[in-house]
Amino acid sequence: MNPIAQPVPRSLLDLSYAGLRQQLVADGLRPSHAHALWRAVHLGDDRGLVRPDAFLPPLRRWVAEHFGEGRAFQIERPELAADTASADGLTRKFLLRLDDGETIETVLMGYAGRSTACLSTQVGCAMGCVFCATGQMGYRRHLRAGEIVAQVRHVQRRLRERGDHGLRNLVLMGMGEPLHNYDAVMTALGIITDRSGLNLGPGHITISTVGVVPGILRLADEPQPYNLAVSLHGATEAERSALVPASRRWSLAELMEACRTFCAKTGRRIFFEWTLIDGVNDSAAQAGRVATLLAGIPSHVNLIPLNPTDGFVGATAASGAAEEFQRVLRGHGIPSTIRQRRGIDVAAGCGQLRATASVP
Ligand code: SAH
Ligand code: SF4
């Protein structure tokens, strides 16, 4: 027995390549065994079956010790509890059941060859944004890195089934606050972007945060060029904290300071998300305040018409309000996009994700 042996993680999908090598070496194996196991886990069987009989004896014994004897075992694979497609066929929502019975949602959007997957990072969310279905259900738990990686594997499998190899973008905009679960998210992204694994480009990955300031500052120092999206929704302390309770913990002033630091350190622009709510934050005056707030920060604003949720009475901004908001921003030289309301009919739009087995 090696006295410094670490506990084996719950799933091989929880380990980065470096983590796997460290684990095996701590257990007395050679680093080269990590390569064989990594390939079997990430590049092997499409069904996620690992066949230990293909390994050299020491690795075969290690695998048998931790995952049981047998010709093959299944890599972590959440059960598909529901699969719903939107009427236009461009959005699919997967309800995935985790091994403790909790469920999360993963959304696949877009056209063949250039799909985007929207991943969850927590079961529920502690941040409590008033208009968000995930916030309305409260915090249940963090996802493990393997549970985040498993969502990508699930989506890729579904794409391959229809002859499409084109998962291009990942957005961490599903259930949960990614920067509240920082370590697991970074481990998962390290695995997903590993060139000898799933090999997705870090520049095609966007992490969306409600404004967890310490997380933004840590992200600014990461070597990988992940994109940052910050959910703003209000341009004064009072207006923002009425919608986003987390704003009382990390003030708007602190948040903007962290955004400036992020841009200065990384040289990258930030995406700002603004959910447009009728009569609450959709006026031209508010657009002007956004422009003032973002002055000097390289930014792109995504305007998201509010999607309905059971727990919030606010209404989607009236038609024309988003365009007017955009016009004001443009006048200040700030580019913006009005997000298409995609997947609303299957409650797969932003902020509608909520673990439920009773999806339509
Ligand atoms: N927790 C992270 C990422 C998940 S939420 C964050 O808040 O950024 C992803 C995006 O959906 C956020 O910009 C969020 O503000 C937005 N959103 C939440 N509820 C919404 C709703 N009902 N309608 C439209 N957008 C919503
Ligand atoms: Fe959490 Fe994001 Fe929803 Fe706010 S909008 S409650 S941070 S998931």
Question: What would you say this structure looks like, in words?
Answer:
With 360 residues, the chain is an alpha/beta fold. It folds into two domains: 10-74; 79-346, Alpha-Beta Barrel (TIM Barrel), CATH 3.20.20. Helices cover 33% and strands 19% of the residues. The protein has eleven helices and 14 strands. The strands form three sheets. Strands 3-4-5-6-9-10-11-12-13-14 form a ten-stranded mixed β-sheet. Strands 1-2 form a two-stranded antiparallel ribbon. A two-stranded antiparallel sheet has the order 7-8. Helix 10 links the parallel strand 12 and strand 13. Helix 10 (284-294) packs parallel to helix 11 (321-331). The longest helix has 17 residues, at 145-161. The model is unreliable at 1-5 (pLDDT under 50). The structure holds S-adenosyl-L-homocysteine and iron/sulfur cluster. Iron/sulfur cluster (SF4) is lined by residues 125, 127-129, 132, 134-135, 176-177, 210, 231, 351. The site of iron/sulfur cluster has 12 residues, from helix 4.
Per-chain topology:
Blueprint: H1 17-26, H2 31-42, E1 49-50, H3 57-67, E2 73-74, E3 79-85, E4 91-97, E5 103-109, E6 115-118, E7 122-124, H4 133-137, E8 139-142, H5 145-161, E9 167-172, H6 182-193, E10 205-209, H7 213-220, E11 227-231, H8 237-243, H9 252-266, E12 270-276, H10 284-294, E13 299-305, H11 321-331, E14 336-338
Parallel strand pairs: 6-9, 9-10, 10-11, 11-12, 12-13, 13-14
Antiparallel strand pairs: 1-2, 3-4, 4-5, 5-6, 7-8
Helix pairs in contact: 1-2, 5-6, 7-9, 10-11
